[in-house]
Write a structure and sequence with these properties.
It comes from Acrobeloides nanus. This is C-type lectin domain-containing protein. The chain has about 80 residues and is mainly β. It has a single domain, classed as Mannose-Binding Protein A, Chain A, CATH 3.10.100.10. The protein has 1 helix and 5 strands. Strands 1, 2, 3, 4 and 5 form a 5-stranded mixed β-sheet that branches.
């Protein structure tokens, strides 16, 4: 849910850097994703819906086409 709080601006949902390759979900840094927080009936089986987005109200994930315009959550290292 903290990730959802980070994305709360005028965005109802945001890309979280999780993408499906084949049948496996990877983070943007290519790490495997073991954590799941999918909304009911998700991820969908639509072959074009390979990017995960977070609903900023519920914190639940859905998947959609990566070319759909969307807000995004970014991660950066603090020094």
């Amino acid at each position: 849910k903290n990730l959802a709080n980070l994305a709360k601006t005028s965005c109802q949902s945001a890309y979280i850097g999780l993408e499906e390759v084949g049948t496996t979900w990877y983070w943007a840094n290519r790490d495997l994703s073991a954590y799941r927080n999918w909304a009911s009936n998700n991820p969908s089986t639509d072959p074009s819906a390979t990017c995960a987005v977070i609903n900023t109200s519920t914190g639940k994930w859905t998947n959609q086409d990566c070319s759909t315009p969307q807000c995004a959550v970014c991660v950066y290292a603090l020094e």
